[in-house]
Model the fold of this input.
Amino acid sequence: MSYNQARNITESYTPSYDPFETRNKRKGSRKDIDYTFNSMIFDNTATLNKFFDRHFVNAVAGASFTSDKRNFENIESVNFPDDFVLNNLGSAGSIQKYSTGGSVSGLESYFFRANYNYDSKYYFTFTARADKSTKFGPNNQWGYFPSAAVAWRASHEPFLSELNWLSDLKVRMSVGKTGSANLGDFLYSTFFSTGATNSFHNGQNGVTLNSVPNPSIRWETTTQADFGIDFSLFENKLRGAFDIYKKYTRDLLLNVTIPNETGSSSQIMNVGDISNKGWEFVIGGDLIDKSNLRLTSDINFSANRAKLEKLNEGWGTNLKEGDPLGTIYGYQTAGLFRTADEISGLNAKSPNGYYQVAKTAPGDLKFVDQNADGYISSSDIVNLGSVEPKFFGGWNNTLRYKEFEASVLFYFAYGQLLHNAAKGNMEIYNSDKNYYRSILNAWSPENPNSNQPRIIRTDPNNNARSSGYLIQDGSFFKLKNLHLAYYINPKKWTKNQVSQIKVYVSASNLFILTGYDGVDPEVSTSTSAGLMPGGYDSGAYPSTRTMSFGFNISF
Amino acid sequence: MKKLLYIFSIIMAGSLVSCDLTNVTDITPPNQLSEETVITDIGSAEKVLIGAYAQLHSFDMLVNQPGITGSMGLSFISGAQGGAAYMQFYENVVSDDNYLLTGIYTNWYYLINICSHIIEKTERLNITVPRKNEIIGEARFLRALGHFNLLRLYGRFYDVSSEYGIVTWDEPVRDITPKPRNAVAESYTRILEDLEQAVANAPQYTSGIYASKQAAMVLRAKVLLYKKDYAAAAQASADAIAQKGGVTLESNFADIFTKWFNSKEVLLAPPFDDKSERNNKAFAFRAYVVPTEELYNMMAGDNRRDVTYFFSGTSLRNGKFQNTTANGQSLTANTEYFLRLAEIYLIQAEALVRSSNGTANFQAARDALNVIRGRVGMPSIGNDVNTKAALLQAVFHEKLMELGAESGEEWFDLVRFHVEGDLDIKTYKPNVVNENRFILPIPAASIIASNNVVKQNPGYE
Done:
């Protein structure tokens, strides 16, 4: 039985001398936000542990009841008699806005888990659970999720235990189903409430409609199968693991665009099925293992391929069944327009009078008319490649010599595309603001050989749109961390009080090798389809280079 | 195993008793009403109706729609903070992923959906008080207003034989199953059905804050004019003027724009205050869209120019939407004139001329125009203006002078007059090179999400 409460109270006050307050002729503004989250979990389990002979059985059965409640309270007030003392809510000249609200969800679960092993050689696990979530409509609340796993510790078999060089060898297999209900509450039906952005008219508080219901919303389930081998040789001097997996996610839940005629622009729905398959390979070893000198090195490689397997009705997307999930869509570019004749030639052939837009001029990007209808529209958007790396991984090395220790961690990813949206914002002119210095190299009649789009107010050609010009190879190799330490043994001066002193210097993000011309190819947010992390560099703050120096004393 | 089951069943039995802990899935959403509970009496129906009116306060309705329409026409151009999205409308080359396009489209449909809920659920109420039908009438008016604005922006409103109408709704949205577009003729039928009901049931006019029978009558005349049903439009205008009740022209043109939603000339304009109905229109109309010098110059010699414009330093500013005050608080809020009475005289004049058998209606048309001209002290149009072409030219000019820099009515006039062969739209807006540019694309999101069940407009596929 557990009860959890999180409360977040925010009070902010903008004093009357703030320029924005002055401009709006207000005497101080205050915001009070109070957010509470309560979670009550009532867990009941019964456990059985039993050894008999070489058999071991462990079984757990239980029921769990979870109730989550969220509440918020929001008050905006203005015009205070005093900025420093009488700035409490009670001193406000008027309350501008107020709202309270909340949501609630319940989850009822029954589960059973059984482990069995024979002689620490053969392992079997079986689990089953049934969940009922109020996030789904009355007919779709229950989800059933079984799983099973077997493992064989081959190194314990008599015929292998004789091999001295084989320290450990284990083969694993598992298959199981899990469910996800990571979505808002009560999306399955039409509801009305107050407090929307626009709910007041003529001083009266009205009732408005929540989002379009999704009566068929149901559990997202993932079935995953794994196969793996762990090994360790020569008394752990060489060790590693190899895993392959395949995941099939049915009825993926995603917030996606819906027909705008419903009065809503997006909805969480079960959009279809996706699959992920991939492998992971880890190998490492103690390359040198002497009392004064130790060198260990571990390296891992991973690769994953995600694919759209099936599209449910209702979800429109550029993706087609069978497409990789990380696909980036955009316009293909064919360099810059260099002459006005080229543009007017294309305009003359367009049924709309214009190939791109009326104000397209030399120095603008030329997009490729894929469907050859004579003009550029969203139907000319094509697949420009994938944001999924061909492989990625890390490489960690530790060297210890007497009292010195050095460790270095590299991180790498290869073969992924990245949408450099920061370049679109910061190197293609739109309005008066700060830009990258490289904007000085933009195309102009005086600089006709540049490949950067021209500088023009409001970017009428929309050169900054998602296109091949902004999609770049994001492969990189990065020194993620470097750590140097010196250990002092204090026994010379003290008896027992201090056991160890460590002095260290460490640095992160020291260098990066990449052909990508944004700030940091590692920092990226999800692609617009939201199906896969990464792929979109909005110019977010890069990973920082930090240097630290310090010492640890253990008493 | 037996023991385990025994223990387990004791626990289960125990947990079933303590209902509060285990009864976690028997819940209803807090502070939310279901379709069954939202409208149970007149009071609750009024609350949802307020919610519907509140949508007229959204930035898309108050600023973006008049801003982009006036940019497509002659009123506005993208201001310092307007950027490329607004500029596309001034250029009359709008891409199907323009966010303004999407916002306006989705918001009107949201309003339409609320209205459909009000109509359906209020009709079901088993009570007979006059207010019941009035509420339904107001909701029908708002739904018609929504469908009409969608039709004239996104559908080929000028061609009743076209299949490119809009998606229309006569019931609430139940799920996201895409609905195909109606033909233009059907779209008009749906709008006029709602308006007939609104004329019959909406309350008498008291102010422009709420929809009224009078507002419905004026909108009906306007819709018939757009539909090119000119004789009916002339009749509907005459009816609207005859039954205008408490609606009157301001004697002083400038007063409209300082009385805002309180002006008795105004048929529908959302109010504003310094609290929950605060908006930012006056600011948006000097930052996102600003008046064109072209229209300022065209208004030379007209007495309305000094009301329509003023100068801040050397910058031309919109005089119809200036800063305001409410409760002693200085604001950048303002309203949107969805309909005001002056327009009915201009609608009547055009409908009379276009439906005239010979010159039969010309004097009546001149009289209607002169009502509007007389109010602002402009000389009357005399008998010397006596050809159809000259009168239509006078109508177009008068609408531009009266309604310019407001909601972009001149854009629809340009299209309608071009289609009727009365002017060449390219001389005003050179980028409108063909019929495809008369209307906007349906937002790309709708086309993709509906899997082409909603067909894109020609030239934007």
